[in-house]
Amino acid sequence: MSTHAGGSKHQVQQVETVVIRFVGDSGDGMQLTGSEFTRASALAGNDLATFPDYPAEIRAPAGSLAGVSGYQVHFGAREIHTPGDAPDVLVAMNPAALKTNLPDLREGGMLIVNAGAFNAANLEKAGYHANPLEDEALQQNYRVFPVDMNRLSETALEGSGLSAKEVARCKNYFALGLMYWMYSRPMEGQLESIAKKFAKKPNLADANARVFKAGYAFGETSEVFFQRYEVPASRLPPGTYRNVTGNYATALGFAAAAHLSGKQVFLGSYPITPASEILHEMAYLKEHGVVTFQAEDEIAGIGSAIGAAFGGALAVTTTSGPGLALKTEMLGFAVITELPLVVVNVQRGGPSTGMPTKTEQSDLLMALFGRHGEAPLPVIAAQSPGDCFWAALEAMRVAVRWMTPVILLTDGYLANGTEPFRIPTLKELPRLDVRYQTGPNHADGQFMPYQRDERLVRDWAIPGTPGLEHRVGGLEKDSLSGMVSYDGMNHERMVKTRAQKVQNVVADVPDVEPFGQDAGELVLVSWGGTFGSVRGAAEQLRARGRSVGHIHLRWLNPLPRNLGDALRRFHKVLVPEVNDGQLAFYLRGSLPGIDPLQFNRINGKPIKIAELVARALEITREVTA
Amino acid sequence: MSTTETLVKEAAYTKKDFESGVDPRWCPGCGDYSIINQVQRTMPALGVKRENIVFVSGIGCSSRFPYYMNNYGMHTLHGRAPAFASGLKISRPELMVWVVTGDGDALAIGGNHFIHAMRRNLDLKLLLFNNRIYGLTKGQASPTSELGKKTKSTPHGTPDAPFNPPALALGAGATFVARSIDVEGPHLGAVIKSAAEHHGSAFVEVYQNCPVFNDGAYTSITDKAVKADQLLRMEHGKPLLFGKDGKKGIRFDGRQARLEVVTVGENGVTEADILVHDVRRDDPTIAFMMANLALTPGFPTPIGVFRDVRRPTSDELTWEQVKAARAKAGDTSLERLLASGDTWIIP
Prior knowledge:
Helix content of chain A: 25-40%
Largest interface: A-B, 66 and 62 residues
Number of helices of chain B: 12
Shape of chain A: globular
Number of strands of chain A: 23
Number of strands of chain B: 12
Largest sheet of chain B: 8 strands, mixed
CATH superfamily of the largest domain in chain A: Pyruvate-ferredoxin oxidoreductase, PFOR, domain III
Distance between the termini of chain B: 40 Å
CATH topology of the largest domain in chain A: Pyruvate-ferredoxin Oxidoreductase, domain 3
Radius of gyration of chain A: 27 Å
Oligomer: heterodimer
Strand content of chain B: 15-25%
Structural class of chain A: alpha/beta
CATH topology of the largest domain in chain B: Rossmann fold
Number of domains of chain A: 4
CATH class of the largest domain in chain A: Alpha Beta
């Protein structure tokens, strides 16, 4: 850290990383404020990760505890793995937001509150008996800055002719302007963004710009703040970057699959939180070979996709847990007909409707085993928002190459979280070759739908191809002709063959390479969206001199060939998960002699690095003792 | 997205070209034999290449259908055939896609897919074999079993009122709705051909006898002795007349807003009073009233086409949007797509 005087009277302190959380009422525009600040940080070259946290209700009663919406951004001059355990800065727009988020603010952290919203009515709605801003303990524990953003926004908009309601809606730009000043962000980009966003309503564009500037100026001229901060650009690998959410990256991955294969990508989907944005985004990619179909229900979502796959499309369906449950019979159909299909499950809190807007990793076992009959299929999981692009592409590549349905697991945290995504060059993208059978594939000049190559993969013959007319279906079929067969021995052969084919996909699964070290006291094993927390924990543990490795699993089925050997080189195996121990259970059953310790959090949020580090330290102390 | 040449220049096919060679496994005397016979006879006349025709079915006796047709086919899950067919048709609009289903498959477990396939006006041809019973599961009441019907699952008679399938299809917005009967071969063949030629969702209900679990379900209208009085053969542009001597007819009673049976030459009724059948009526109300006459005491059961109107289909509109998006977009390269939005460079 260094301190120098900037271009103004304020000291400018350089900091390595900062976590800011914007919280307010659902109607306060906190998601917009957070994402705009994130954009500025990205453009300033910081690495970052974000975590939007919003209620399931579109408009919970104003000012209520249930209606609090938040957006956390962690940005820095070094590699950022997670949105951060605890905010360094909390920007709270009303009492309810303060009440629900204050426990997370780190001790001594900065608390900026919209004092104008701390009136009797709002205090009562938040369950405060007295104004917490007058509480001495608050002043002692945090650096508190009450700013009456309501009044200051009103003042900035005097004579604008806007209604009181419209004026009130501008105040999030005051908070944004203040944070721009505090973190030394150039105003121009934001002013352009406002002009663009409100292009159709010039009076609102003008008003928001005025309030934004007022927020910035308030930081500069008021005597409230003593210091500004600067977070230098991070040392990310060279390249062109953009900020992406996991859901957008997923959509982009499938569009890339259409380009790379030259084939149509067909998405059949039914709206469900938190997966709907993939459908929204893909509906905008029509000129990139993507066709979308909003089905009448989850079952028709996957059914239409399988129908399109029969027709030769690269088929996708997107959903979340309850939807995956509805799709299970269809998944069995895709398994038995051996048609390529990618099912994206953006996991959320369950069971049942559970916590739709909160993240969880609790569908792993359903993805692996949740079908009747023997119905194995490959399962892959994305590890970060940007990685959803690569995971979607990989899932489709495997589905087509192996003629099988593939489940891609992401989660609510990856779906809505953002990070800088290095845009790949075309040369960095994998090949995606699609081959349709065009003539007979059998010695007698016939087409046999279940004729297989040496990898046990059958041919894909699509309607419109003369001479290859054939029928597929859910009944067990003869292992060569595909005709309905009730022969028990044929069934056993088909069950074993389908399983072996999925096992053969291991040829496309790279061996694991532990991070840090490949033998030692403890290895952390993660999958999916916990990558960032676990990698961050591993780094901290190693910085403290502990002998700790980290293995992250991308493919959950088949598991990497060397996984068992890699784990056995450590004294202890710890599996942190946002569920009650599903990967741990799976590893126990899959890898003889491996009995992992567990670290489980199921509170709708990503794992906190500090908590995981504390648990890992206990274990390593035991090992050393 | 290739646009395969769909039409055959000359009628090069015979019925045999559409037989897969697999022997059907329906019970002896099953009405399904007659239906597949008519479908296979109709196919050569459609002028569509065999490889561009796909039959999709669900689960039930009728749903074995695709195995016996020498086309592309999918024998899918119970009730779900319209879902598979919808995806296939949207993805490959140049294909001719048929759905073969039954009363349990389409109206019970698959009711949702059925109504949505109809309301979307996708260019699908849906044949519903209605035997008013569950056959493959050996004799339970179906959504078209008549009220009070005693079956294995309803030993004291079903307390549930049945669906009238064409009325349901009309209510859901189908643009082509028809009904025929397994034993009326030539009529059935003609209706299937009309459905094939319709552009949009085409629904055909086929009354089909199940000789094992619901034998004689339609004898009250198909027996030689009664059918002239019990069947009304609707023809577009012609008055709705029926009966042995063709004197009975359907009149629209405007005052009561209902249909009634009258006799030409009695009570001052002339042929001019008889409702003229018009399949192109924009408003489906009359078609709905006609559909509901089926199996109603005092009324004949109408067979033939109830409605046949042209509307833009869902698959056409989908592809118009794709074309418009392509026309509007400048650079549609992958590089451009990947680098869209706010970007920054790290040297």
